[in-house]
Write the structure tokens for this entry.
Amino acid sequence: MVYLLAPGAIYRAVFSLSIPSKRYQRNRTEEIVFSVIATMIPFAITWLLLCLTPIGRHPCIGGVLTKRQAYKQIFDALVGNGFQTGVSPSAAYLRALKEQARFIAVLWFFCIIEGTAAIFLLRHYGNYKRGSRLSTLCEKCILVHVSEWQLLFTTLTLADVDKGKSVEVDVLTTYDMLYRGQLSDWFTESDGKLAGLFLAHAERYQKDKLERDREKGIIKSTEAYWKIIPGANMYFPANTIANYNIRYVKSNSEAVTKELGEDVSVKPLPPLEDQPQTLAASLEK
């Protein structure tokens, strides 16, 4: 338990503090396999450090028996040879217990380091060249355990230069209405399925108005048929979503700065009274 399942749980807990893990119920075999894979590297490093380097003698554990003698006495007792005359069983077990406690403490420490390293690798995944060792490592060993919604609804896997992009979603509902807006939050059920999502600055596409204008021969840009919906956020339960499209776009301020130059500052205008709160911008030289 403390050598296998606990290290795997520690790695998963550290990783999940920063990046949500995929939620699904593992059976006992899958849990053991995951823990073995997650513990292999920390276990090997711990064994090498404590058994083959002077680090294994710190902190110093005194006693009438050395580590080797204590393990030998316990092994002989287990195979039926019993303890040697004059050797205290409690002394052998106590020395072995102290040595194992040190091994476990170092093992768990390296499991924490491994979880932290996995987070660092994944956060820079977008910078890795496709097919490289780091990219393959992330895809085969790390991404498969990350929540699919975290990958879709955030810029986690994008390159660092694209981290500042916002996530915008086009939602087609089951009642044949099209909405769009900036994704502000989402919720999942206990089994990891999508429960719903929030869109900030949501807009609804006026398809009926477009059809009426087409019948009258009025031609307008499709952007003219998007109507702002009052309110800070609009919630869409998952059972009302027929389809959705995800876009990663630069913010308006970034686009204006790139177009007009670094000497242009973009500031939001205060909301107008009795009007829906929308994002506007003023340009100041």
Q: What stands out?
A: Confidence is low (pLDDT under 50) at residues 253-260, 262-285.
